[in-house]
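Archive entry. Fields below.
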Amino acid sequence: AQRVTQPEKLLSVFKGAPVELKCNYSYSGSPELFWYVQYSRQRLQLLLRHISRESIKGFTADLNKGETSFHLKKPFAQEEDSAMYYCALSDDYKLSFGAGTTVTVRA
Amino acid sequence: DAGVTQSPTHLIKTRGQHVTLRCSPISGHKSVSWYQQVLGQGPQFIFQYYEKEERGRGNFPDRFSARQFPNYSSELNVNALLLGDSALYLCASSFQRLAGQETQYFGPGTRLLVL
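PREDICTED_STRUCTURE:
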């Protein structure tokens, strides 16, 4: 069975500091992984997907199959990055989400 | 386009009652998925409907059912409500069925409280 683990429930960083959100997964096949974000009073939305290999809002994520990880990184956090972040794994028709990490960026 | 819409935004029910939640997908989207999000956890997959047929079901009891209409809108029904059914119910739509190849667009959710 597939499983997504986000070990940190809360993450607090200062503005301008690097931020890294950890995500580990277990899946028997070739995974397709995503990061979703939910800003205050907004709906859940896609931040990035590993297959695109793109940077969105300064965030990047690298799939490491050896370590079964898909950590999200940003070199310089901004206050507008404060949000709830979910790592998710796709299995054909459904997404399996981690429990989420709340990020607070302090001025 | 207003995006995915859900109704009602919130409601309160008592144990044993029945509830119907509604979802309208983005225009042109044929797939609707339902997720349950309990406080402090990530969304858990309940159902996917594509072209009006159930294509996937999560690990939820038979008290949970859903359907998709010809206009691709969807209803989630929960019978014999339990306290543990209290959660945020999210609807997501996409053009195709395959979650891995399509961006899923989420609605604002319906917050259900069971007393």
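CURATOR_NOTE: The mean pLDDT of chain A is 93.
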